[in-house]
Amino acid sequence: MTPLRVLILEDQPFQRGYLANLLHALPGVVTHTSGDAANAVAMCDLFDYDLVITDLMMPGVDGIQFIQALAAKEHHPKLSLVSSAPPRMLTSARLMAESLGLTVLGSLPKPVTQADMDALVAQLRVAPLTVPAMPADAAPLTPSRAQLRDAIAGGEITAWFQPKKSLDSGQVVAAEALVRWCHPTRGTLPAGVFLPLIAEQGLEPMLLRHILVESVKAQARWREQGFRIPVSINLPPHLLERSSLPDELLELTLSHHGRPGDLCFELMEGSTTAHVSDYYAGACRLRMKGFGLAQDDFGQGLSSVHNLVSTPFTEVKIDRALVTGCARDPALHGALATVIALGTRLGLNIVAEGVETDEELATLRKLGCTQVQGYLISRAVPADAFAALLGREGSVHPTPPCH
């Protein structure tokens, strides 16, 4: 087992020693401590920590300023907030840290118990590895429009699939298609690295069609195994300004022997149509063609209750901002309960994103959430790996007999 290196930043000596003792009880953990944020910043220059546990309310340089300094460094350890601050302050601090590119494993109110620390370290061990920052002297990723087109057409940019599990059966019941670039020299690149470039070059329609075809082909292979798996595909809402888009997507689906009812388009955050009429027209026509329709990232940004009740959605996806910490934060718990109750009354499939702990999973199950996805279930994987996952875990949507 590779040792985990953890830094504790806590200005109160008793609390600092107490947290260190909790970690010392766990095998394979090397613990360093600091009572001063400026000193902790310097320690992060000397050691590549796997996890930093920090208080917020400290004299001098406070926890917020420390997090901002941490985010500016080349190596980004995971972060956990431990504080007696009000829950909503902890939530704001977590959102701030995540917006700076840090991974926050949890916010723990004081007093922290041994069980809390056990769960935090267990979560750290299964968390995805931090992607190393690009060296300062590395050439930036600046592909031309032609290179991006070739990467899409040639299959370098392709669909990976993240499973969705039913909270009723515990089995895989659906998947979300996520974009990855298997770059010939830089390895596998996540969507956030290149999607803005694709948008700048006006290649989103081409990418949407490509991911649709990749998804339909993957579904065909899964059906050969005996599994019928609906797939969700991200769709930037501004593309609905093209009035013929629903017809084009249906034609493309049918030409590749796909089933509209097994595909769901997730209307993404971050864009909308210039005229609201195009948004509603496109949403209605997608549903009329038989496709499912999901409100993505509900709980942040442009999503709203009015939008949820006035658009013919079949699914609502609860943003991870409402999920992370929901087992401990009464405000998040109450917001989740309200959203899930509303989705249930509207007859929607309710999917929670970003589920990373057993406690979050148990909370969502109690509140009546339908499905979950996140690192606790599985990361996104290529279609063949998803097929192997189905073989291990099964599905509650077996392929119906042919007629």
Automatic annotation (TrEMBL):
Response regulatory domain location is 5-125
Q: Which InterPro entries match?
A: CheY-like_superfamily, Cyclic-di-GMP_PDE-like, EAL_dom, EAL_sf, Sig_transdc_resp-reg_receiver
Is the Nucleotide-binding keyword given for this protein?
A: no
Tell me the ranges covered by the EAL domain, including all copies: 141-394
Q: Which UniProt keywords apply?
A: Phosphoprotein
- The modified positions for 4-aspartylphosphate read 55
Q: Which domain of life is it from?
A: Bacteria
State the protein's name.
EAL domain-containing response regulator
| Native source species | Stenotrophomonas oahuensis
